[in-house]
Amino acid sequence: MVRKMNKTKFIEVLAKELNCDVEYSRxxxxxxxxxxxxxxxxxxxxxxxxxxxxxxxxxEAEKIYEVACSVASNAIKEKIKHPFKDLNxx
Length: 90
Fold this sequence. Notes:
By secondary structure, this protein is mainly α. Helix content is 77%, strand content 0%. Helix 1 crosses helix 4 (58-81) and helix 2 (22-34) crosses helix 3.
């Protein structure tokens, strides 16, 4: 249950940051779940998958990747700084 809420919150924040609808950010999240975020080769693979699956150019795909990494890393940093804070209640 908690994991699903974290995923939902991630999708909502991603939609807000990318200025897109929730369904589009859900598709982005599905791609991210199939491809790890860490690593240069993984970045290339993920960006290429974005380009194919979402039918977008490389610049837009890299922007999506960078925003997704930023959202994920900020959530991790916040959890490290405040380990007992519920990030889903913000």
